[in-house]
Amino acid sequence: MSTQKRKTEHLDIACNQNVQFREKKTGFEKIGFKEIELEYKTLPEIDKKEIKLETKFLGKKFSAPLLVGAITGGCTEATQINKDIAGACEELGLGMCLGSMRAMLEKPELKETYFVRDVAPNIFLAGNIGAAQLPQYSIEKIEKALKEIKADALAIHLNAAQEALQKEGDTNFKGALKAIAKVSRELSKPVYVKEVGHGISGRIAKELAKTKIKAIDVAGAGGTSWTGIDSLRGNAELGETFWDYGIPTVQSIVECRKAFKGAIVASGGVRTGLDVAKAIALGADIAGIALPVLKAQQTGGKEGVKKYLEKVIEELRIAMFLSGAKNLKELKKIKIANRN
Prior knowledge:
alpha/beta; TIM Barrel; 13 strands; three-stranded antiparallel sheet; 340 residues; eight-stranded parallel β-barrel; globular
């Protein structure tokens, strides 16, 4: 099956079927009888109107600590989706990571399905290549691909669990860490590593910390299950076993923060601004959201995406107000409690 057709199937399943983790939760919500909570300051002693959300990620300014995570590219349907999302991010001053560029690297004519600079000339924009495929491409080829879409950085996605359940999956990860180290050392653009929704452990973060990558996007378990999506494409029996496989987002944030000194992106089941606030208080620098953005685009186009992201931003502002945090630096100092 062509990469292009697989991309179309992924989009169709993500848009039209329930692809959430079933039992495993992110950790932001209730876990048994416990719940992750920010300290509530009923006397916050700040003016909500003066709260500052601005930050920087890999050298680019963000109006709020939000990155739209990798969704799609490489098929006809992706063109408008990416432009709508990028256009909303441009108006709001947020960042975006494109879907895997494997299709474009195989067929350069698919570049237009990833190109968004006509509608979003100023946003942080990351290209995206899989770790399993990375050894196949020269630095020069990767540089050219990033230049063609005018990307600011390269995200390298780790998706061993997804590949294992994908009927045409690439499960040869030999040399992947060495390839990541080489690209992060030699590429002219900043490089970061991300999972796709099954989490990164502290042990792996320690290995990645030995490379020159600038950030880790934990993409933990509890949101969209990519083992689930690919099991629905034809590996349903095995998919039932591994649907809920992975490290919950909160656990992954905490482990990676201890092991890695660079930036941490919290994604994987992030759905609200309160989730974003909790993630930053736990040690993340920014948060990533993907599936809800896709759903918003499908129902409302660019304006639907913008409306959803504005809601998340306002929820974050309210969470910070109720925690007495005037900016993100202060939010990182807010106490997190596991309350009965």
